[in-house]
From TrEMBL:
Name this polypeptide is given: Oxygen sensor histidine kinase NreB
Signal peptide positions (record): none
Domain DUF5931: 24-197
InterPro entries: DUF5931, HATPase_C_sf, HATPase_dom, Sensor_HK_TwoCompSys, Sig_transdc_His_kin-like_C, Sig_transdc_His_kin_sub3_dim/P
GO MF term (any one): 4 iron, 4 sulfur cluster binding
Localization annotation: Cytoplasm
Domain Signal transduction histidine kinase subgroup 3 dimerisation and phosphoacceptor: from-to ranges: 208-248
Native organism: Streptomyces inhibens
Lineage of producing organism: Bacteria, Bacillati, Actinomycetota, Actinomycetes, Kitasatosporales
CDD domains in UniProt: HATPase
Gene3D superfamilies associated with the record: 1.20.5.1930, Histidine kinase-like ATPase, C-terminal domain
Pfam family, any one: HATPase_c
Amino acid sequence: MTDADIRTVTGGMAAARRHGKHPKVLRMSVELPLWRALTGYRILTLVYTLCLVALSYRRYEHPLGAAAYMGALTVWMALTWRRTTSPERCTRRFLIADLGFAVGGILITPLVDSHARIMDGSPTLPSIWTAGAVLGFAIKGGWRWAAVASSAVAVANLVERQELARDTIHNVVLVWVASVAIGYVVEVARASERTLARALQIDAATRERERLARDIHDSVLQVLAMVQRRGAAIGGEAAELGRMAGEQEVALRTLVAGGMVPSAHGARPGGAATAVPYAAGESGVGEAAPVVAAPPPVAGGSCDVRALLAPYASAGVTFSEPGAPVELPAAAAAELAAAVSAALDNVWVHAGGDAHAWILVEDEPHAVIVTVRDDGPGIPEGRLADAEREGRLGVALSIRGRLRDLGGGAEWVSVPGQGTEVELTVPKGTAPEGGRRGKARA
């Protein structure tokens, strides 16, 4: 179940509540097919048992007694066949009554049939319909309930036959083993279902937490870092304000990094970066980077990536694009633009305000590739991993997290003294929500 599916269900439930209606509960149950199969089994075996009794009607010592039992059993099935269509309808009281019909039919068989026919292997009145009552216990309560019910049937069969005949023991053991095995499988399936539901809850919570962390990094953390730096430069009361902003930045980074739970599918996409305009030359290494004002995301349809990336061009940024439109789903294009913004932020942080950056857009048959390159000093080996451990999550969330949601990836190539190159790849036809997620390359 994807995030889009979860949002669709919860949105429908919210709409139903607003209109005063009770929302329909969508139950994800691995045992529902078993209940349907049990219902079909009980109906088919009833038909088979009726035919069996009808064919042997004249052979019974008291055929009217056999007919009376089969009539009662048919009425019982007509009144209760829906009870086995769902676990809510199949109550413990019903299961006991159903088993009572089966055991009662076995015990009255000697009263309506001759001893010779019974010893010759004649079936009991309920015949194989009895297994349906036992299977109901197995599906409802697991293997322990199944063992109790099948044991009751076994005792009834031994009383009816009055001896330990081979075929009787064979049938008893077969019913006992089958019901216990099905009951155990049902218990395992329920445990797996609970584990899956818990995993989906954790995954959804993780995605939301990572989305919030990414938005915080793209806006609040950088504003706090700017206030800290400006306050230190101005001095006086502003310096104290800057110091407090710096403390809050560190605390917030620690909270964001500590609350992160690794997710195989990445974070859910957040919005574009919030613009915080100030000169790029004022940023130093290790400080917050200037946030480039990205165009707002376009809702729905497709979008030309060039239109979203063109505003990044400036005296310090060279933008190169194909001559034809580069189309991506609007949400995917917005996420790619936000990742480019974060990559440019890293250029100003690590290369300084005097660095020059180049943005190259390539429209490949199956993907859109955007390369961000600078002429800075490069990134020392292991620095990206160290930054992530320190709580600086620009690369982990604003770049890798966004592209991972789109089924793409990011690759860094950095040589000391020769600058850094970041290649961002987004497969065509992907969207952050509800689409197929691929494996990130970085």
